[in-house]
Amino acid sequence: MSTIIIIGGGWAGCAAALAARRGKAKHVILLERTDLLLGCGLAGGIMRNNGRHTAAEELRLMGAGALVDAADGVATHAGLDFPGHRHATLYSTTRMEPAVRALLRDKGVDLRFLARVV
User: Is 115 helix (H, G, I), strand (E, B) or coil?
Assistant: First the structure.
């Protein structure tokens, strides 16, 4: 068994941490330079719409379904159609980060915030 260190707690870093734990890594450490996960991913609030709908299902097939489930779990609205968006799922950015943080901790990921890598 190995120790895996992941730099960055954006969507990709969180997915990588879950994949490492699923792959039986003994210790997974996620280093994030801020005090929040998901970085720029907290700016949008739309998980599924147009191409993102397909991307969410691709994430599920690649093993990051737990992140999609977390997003769906904090959705405030689902299946909305409005100009430029079809079948959109909207989430509250203030609810998304704590849900992903709890998921990673539940899976045994060692989260380290305000960590800089040089």
Answer: coil
pLDDT in tens, 65-113: 888 888 888 888 888 888 877 778 888 878 889 999 999 999 999 999 9
Three-state DSSP at 32 gives strand
Identity of the amino acid at 105: R
| Euclidean distance between CA atoms 9 and 78, whole angstroms | 26
Chain position carrying tokens 């949008």:
44
Residue 79's H or E segment, with its range, is: strand 75-82
Cα separation of 4 and 17, whole Å?
8
- The candidate with the shortest Cα–Cα distance to 10, out of 115, 19, 33, is 33
The Cα 72–Cα 70 span in angstroms is 5
Helices (H) and strands (E) in the chain, counts: 4, 6
